[in-house]
Amino acid sequence: MREYFAGDVSAINGIEVRQPGAQFSQAAWQAMRKIRPGKVLSYSELAERAGSFAAVRAAGSACAKNAIVLVVPCHRIVKTGGALGNYAYGVNTKEWLLRHEGAL
């Protein structure tokens, strides 16, 4: 984590993690791990990458249930149109993380 906050935003990519969750949540978390630093996806794009274009609410729920923030980068998921949306640690933190990674 030290490397990430020191500026190497790809330092967290190789960290292996597991967390319990439903099949769609697992697929959404895997899709989040594939989003490169400096990039964002909308909730609908996340739903599609997780296997169900219509599961936008489930994509949001997967973000909310994610217990391994940063490593499973739910902060890279935004609303359609680019609005930041919610974040468990506050919108200011989400904005800081996205700026740190070069997405904003």
TrEMBL record:
SUPFAM superfamilies listed in its UniProt record: Methylated DNA-protein cysteine methyltransferase, C-terminal domain
InterPro entries linked: MethylDNA_cys_MeTrfase_AS, MethylDNA_cys_MeTrfase_DNA-bd, MethylDNA_cys_MeTrfase_DNAb, WH-like_DNA-bd_sf
Keywords: DNA damage, DNA repair, Methyltransferase, Transferase
Class of the enzyme per the UniProt entry, highest EC level: transferase
Gene3D superfamilies in alphabetical order: Winged helix-like DNA-binding domain superfamily/Winged helix DNA-binding domain
EC code(s) of this entry: 2.1.1.63
Reaction catalyzed: a 4-O-methyl-thymidine in DNA + L-cysteinyl-[protein] = a thymidine in DNA + S-methyl-L-cysteinyl-[protein]; a 6-O-methyl-2'-deoxyguanosine in DNA + L-cysteinyl-[protein] = S-methyl-L-cysteinyl-[protein] + a 2'-deoxyguanosine in DNA
Keyword Transferase: yes
GO function terms (MF aspect): methylated-DNA-[protein]-cysteine S-methyltransferase activity
GO BP terms: DNA repair; methylation
Positions of the Methylated-DNA-[protein]-cysteine S-methyltransferase DNA binding domain: 23-103
Signal peptide annotation: none
Keyword DNA repair among UniProt keywords: yes
Similarity comment text for this entry: Belongs to the MGMT family.
UniProt protein name: methylated-DNA--[protein]-cysteine S-methyltransferase
Species annotation: freshwater metagenome
Species classification: unclassified sequences, metagenomes, ecological metagenomes
